[in-house]
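During the no-cost extension, the postdoctoral fellow (Dr. R.K.) reprocessed legacy sequence entries with the updated structure-token encoder. One reprocessed record is reproduced below for audit purposes.
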Amino acid sequence: SSGINAEYGGLPYGGKEDIFHYFFKVAWHGEEEALNIIGTGENIIPTIHVQDLSNIVTSVADAKPKTRYIVAVDDSMNSMTEIITCISKNLGTGNVMNITREEALLIPEINQRVFDILSVNLRMEGTWIKEGAKFEWAAESGILENIATVVTEYKESRGLLPIRICVMGPPASGKSLIASQLCQHYKLHHLKIADVIAAAIEKLEKQAARAESEEGEEDDEAAQQAQETLDLLNESKQENNDRYEDQYIIQFFTEKLMSMPCQNQGFVLDGFPKTYSQAKQLFENKEEPEDEDAPRLEYNAKIMPEVVISLDAEDEFLKKRIMNLPESVVAGTHNTEDLFLKRLAEFRALNTDDQTVLNYFDELEVHPEHIDIAADTSSNMSQVLEKITKTVGKPRNYGPTEEERLELERISMEKQMKKEALEKLEMQRKEEEEKKETQRRKEEWANRVKEVKQQEEEVLQAQSYPLRNYLMKHVMPTLNQGLIEVCKVRPEDAIDYLAEYLFEHNPQVD
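Re-encoded structure tokens follow.
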């Protein structure tokens, strides 16, 4: 409110979205087959763009109108079905489905507040804002008429901008591995030639099959066109050595790149386009600018890769890589020796002229980043992946889901537990080694002490040999004779007698 004025606004939309955020989020992800419409969806929901609501509040504060109650709504009077269908067509699969009110309340993102607001059924008209408010409307006609701008605002406000990458390189350079890892890291769509063609053929076959069903004239006409396209494709394939012509492959890729999933999350082109001509046809801008004064871009900015990666390697390195693959992995694929060498020769032939696919990107100032894969010593090219992610930057999406977050936490916990277990084992190993080392040192010291004692005894024994010989030769005979005399005479003082005897009979030693 402002002063005595009371303002009543319609359901706000625009920017990051609030009440409608659940529907925008589900549509952007594209994982659900259809967007949910609560109940019959016939209720009229009054709406107002957040920028217009802000302008109305400012106008009321400036003008101070006498009108006591002011209704802030746009000109639209759209039902829930119309709004949800519009969001689905411009951001998601284009499909909608009705769910009961009870089912809606079971959806975590639809709390009681959101449910109550989406359940309103009101036809409101803003009289004063048409006559007294002076401002430039952002979306006077409502969300349906301005959905393109609203979707752009939503993506930009939440940083949900597509990441477009092209990975090039010779056969066996690891393009598909790197592309797959990038898609997993950034939650992008992996576009391989075989998969894109197969998906396009399957789509045409489904459309052609509708000719037999009891549908309207439009579906019948679309089915006939699909069948005609299939016939042309088969004819082209037979005439071109079991290959499709470039014009059809370009058409399939263009449709895929312009599809809602690729425009929402982004994509990784895996080894396509292969030639300068293919690149020029694929990315050519076929639309005229809305503003006549604006310069016309040579390429379609909606599908032009923002990052181009060239995985470089010498032929010998690639040959060794193929030769080191197990026979069970190579058998039945295009990586057999003959097929690999043929594909490698074709790649080199296409990338020797001035007009190569990398030259095309260079001319448009989208300079390829060259990475030498031979310098990567990891088992799964993680070093190459790290370089590319540094170039691309952070993911531009909602981040991990609750299930993914729990899975990441589980993996992180397992890694931590494994790390702690390894550290514990390492500590135990070191302690065991220290104990063994201590025991070894003790035993070594004991052996040294024993050895020293033995050496000392040997030295003493060696030193005692001359004295012993002297005593046995010169002293012991006289001493023995003296003892015999003592026994014969039996003097009162045997010691003194023996001493006198020894002095008297002391042998003279030269």
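Residues 52 and 136 are 8 Å apart (CA to CA). DSSP finds 20 helices and eleven strands in the chain. The remaining legacy entries will be reprocessed before the final report is submitted.
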